[in-house]
Amino acid sequence: MPNLNDAKVILEAKKLEAWFGDFHAVKGITVDYREKTINAIIGPSGCGKSTYLRCLNRIHEEIEGARTAGEVLLEGKNIYDKKVDVVDVRRRIGMVFQKPNPFPSMSILDNVVIGLRLQGISKRSTLLETAEVCLRKAALWDEVKDKLNSLGTSLSGGQQQRLCIARALAVNPPVLLMDEPTSALDPIATAKIEELMNEIKKEYTVIIVTHNMQQAARISDFTSFFVYGNMIEHGLSADIFTNPKEKQTEDYISGRFG
Amino acid sequence: MDICTRDLREHVLKMASLVEASLSGSLSMDKTMEDIFVLEKKINEFHILIDDACFKYMALKSPTAKDLRTAIAVMKINADLERMGDQAIKIKRHQVTIGRDILQLKNLALEVNLMVKNALDSFVRSNTKLATDVIHHDQEINAINRDIVRDYINQIKNNVISFDEGYSIIKISKNLERIGDHAKNIAEDVIFLESGSDIRHNPEYKTPKKD
Amino acid sequence: MNYRIYRKFKNFMFLVLTLVSALAVLIPLFMIIQFVLVQGASSLSLDFFTQLPKPVGEVGGGMKHAILGTIYIVLLGAAIAIPIGVTCGIYLSEFSKSKLSKTLKMTVDLMSGIPSIVIGIFAYLVVVVPLKSFSAFAGAIALSIIMLPIIIKTSEEILKLVPNHIREAGLALGLPRWKVILFIILKGSVSNLLTGMILAISRAAGETAPLLFTAFGNMYLSYNMNEPMASLPVQIYTYAISPYKDWQRQAWAGAFVLMVLILTMNLFARFILTKIKDKKGI
Fold first, then answer.
1. For chain B, which terminus, N or C, has the lower number of CB atoms within 10 Å?
2. Averaged over A97-122, what is the pLDDT?
C-alpha cells in the first residue's frame, strides 16, 4: 500500500476560524488534505464540522452574519485572498449537500450540464459527452440513460443524490466537499454512494462530513475529530479508529461521549 | 484502507502454503534446519500481518454476519497456522538428533499432512463436509500417536534403541499429533465460518467417522 | 349520560353553524352568477362580440370595442407591471437583508390597500392632466399600479418557496449569483410566477374606477393608446346607468362576459398551480 502521508497536499486550512454573528463556530483549524484521498470529519452535532466544511469553498459567507478568518490554500494559493474570485474558488471546490437538491423543473440532463452551460459551453455534443461521463462516475448512467429528459426531481432520493454528485463533478473540481451526503438516504442508497466514492477518489480529493462513524471508518483514508469548533485529532483513519491518541476521540468513537 | 474479506483469505492461503512447506520439510532429510527457519520467519511475518489486517478490518469496516465470522475465523486459523509452524521447528530439531527416517513417523506425518491439506481445502472451498471429515480423522491420528508412544517406550525399556533416540521419536509423534489438533481446530473454524454454529467440545464429533 | 348528550348537541350545533356560514358565502356567489346570466342571456349573441354599439334608439349592436379595449389596456398594464413586479419580487426574496427591502415590503402592503378610485385619481393627475387627454396609456398605468403589489407579493413568496439549499447548490457549482437567480431559481419557478401574473391580471381586468378617470371610454374601435379607449367595466357602467332598456340588457351581457373571462383566468391559474404542486414537492 502506498504511503498516504507522502501524497501531494492539495488543500490546506491554516488557522481557519468562522463565526455566525457572535457565535464562534470554528476555532483555528490547521490541517492539510492529500491529493486523491477521502477525508472524513466526524464529531458530535453542532461541533462546527459542517460550518468548517462550508468555509472550504466559501459558501459559509453566503449566510447572513457569517464571517471567517484565516487561510485556506488550494494548491498553495489562498482562496480568501482579496484578488481571488469566489466564483472561481467554487468552480474548483465542488460541494454535495445533505439533502438531495436537484434543480427544480430541470431535466436530468440539464441538471448535470447546467454548470457548464452557464459557463458558456453550448456545444451539444460536448455537453452530452460530459453528462455521460459524469453520470457514469456517479454510478447513475445505467439507471437514467433512457430518461435523460425526465425531471431530476422525479428520481428516488438516492438517485437524486447521485445526480447531485454528477452535477458537482461536471465542472470538474479537483476537490469535492460532501456535507453528510447519505444522512437522508436508506442503507442501500448509502452503500451505493460509498461505493462510488471509492471510485471517484481515483481522480478527486473528497472531504466528507458524516454523522455516521462507521461510514467514516469504512470509506476514509484520513479522519478528523471535531468538538466545539476545535479539531481534537486528525490522522489516518486506520490509526484513529484503532488507536486514537486523544482520550476524547477514544470516548467518542467508543460511543461514550457526553 | 480498502481491506476486504477476500484479502484476508488470500493472506491466509499464502501463509498456509508456507506452513505446509515447513511441515513437509520438517521430516525430510533433504531440508536443513536453516531452510525451516527461513520459512518460519516468513510465517511469523504473516502471523503479524494477518492479525493486524483483521484488527483494522473489524475496526474500520464494522463487518457483520459472514464477514464478521470470516474475520474471527481468520484470526483463529492464523494462530493455529503459526503454532503448526512452531511444531515443525521442534520436529526438525528432534529429527536432526535421530538422523534417519523412521517409517512409523513417516506414515503418521503423511496422515497429518493430508489432514492439514484437507482442513485448508475445506477453508478454500467453503466445504463443511470436508471439514467434518477432518475433525473425525483427528481420532485416528490420536490412536496412531498412542501406538507409537507405547511401542517406543517398550523399545526403550527393552534397550532396543537408545533413550535419546526413542525420546525424540516419541516427541516427534507427539508434535505431529499436536499439528493434527491444530488442523482439527481449523476445520472447526471453517464450520463456524460457513454455518455460524460452534461445534467445538461436541461429543458427536469425538468418535471416529463411521463409514 | 346527560352530559354526553349535551356534549354531542354542542358538537352538532357547531357543525350547523359552520355549515350555515359556508352556505352564506356560496349563496350570494351563485345568485350573482344566476342573476347575471338570466338578465344578460337575451343580449348574448354573436353580434355582441362582433358589433360596435348602435346609436341610441337602434336595437342591437355589441361591445366588440370594449372587449378588445379591455384586453388591450390590461395587457399593456401587465407589460408595465410584470417586469417591474417580478424584479422587485426577486429583490425582496433574494436580497432581503437590506433596510430598503423592509421599507419596500411595507410600501407594497400599503399599496395593495389603496382604494382603486384613489389610484384612478392618481393616474389622472400624473398622466391625463399633463398630457391633456384621457388615454388608454393612462388606463394601463392605473391598472399596472393595481397589479404591482399582487405580482410583487406572489413572486416574492414563490421565490421564497425555493429552498435555500437549491441556491447554495447553484453557488457551489461556481455560478455567479445573478446566473443562479435567473437561470435556476427563476427558471424553476416560471410556471408558479405565471400563476401569480394571471391572478393579478384577472384582478385588474375587473377594475372600473381607475379607468373612469383615465381610459375614459368611447363608442368606437380604437387602438391608439394616446386616445380614450373603451373597456368592459366602464362600458357596463355607462350602459347600466343609461335609461335605455336595450343598453341595460347589454350591460348585463357585458357583465356576464367579464365574469366568465375573469373566472376562466382564475381557474386556469389554479389548474396550473395544482399541477405544479402535484408534480414536485420542492
1. C
2. 89
Residues 6 or more apart in contact with residue C186 via CB below 8 angstroms: C90, C159, C193
Of C165, C179, C282, which is closest to A118 when you measure between CB atoms?
A: C179
The closest of A139, A141, A154, A142 to A106, measured between CA atoms, is A154
What is the domain count for chain C?
Answer: 1
Confidence of residue C209 (pLDDT cuts 50, 70, 90): confident
Contact C172 A167 (CB under 8 A): no
Q: Do B59 and A220 touch (CB under 8 A)?
A: no
Three-state secondary structure readout of A12-30? EEEEEEEEECCEEEEEEEE
Do the domain assignments include residue C247? yes
What's the average model confidence in pLDDT over A7-35? 91
Res B171: pLDDT: 94
Rounded Cα distance between B83 and B186, Å, is 12
C62 compared with B6, residue with greater pLDDT: B6
Residue C60 binned pLDDT confidence (cut-offs 50, 70, 90): confident
Q: Model pTM?
A: 0.77
Are residues C173 and A167, on separate chains, in Cβ contact within 8 Å? yes
CATH code for position C72: 1.10.3720.10
**Which domains does chain B show, CATH number per domain?**
5-205 (1.20.58.220)
- Residue B33 near residue B93 (C-beta atoms within 8 A): yes
More confident residue, C66 or C273: C66
Architecture label for domain A4-253? 3-Layer(aba) Sandwich (3.40)
ipTM of model:
0.88
**d(CA A87, nearest CA chain B) in Å:** 34
Domain hosting residue C78, numbered range: 48-52+63-277
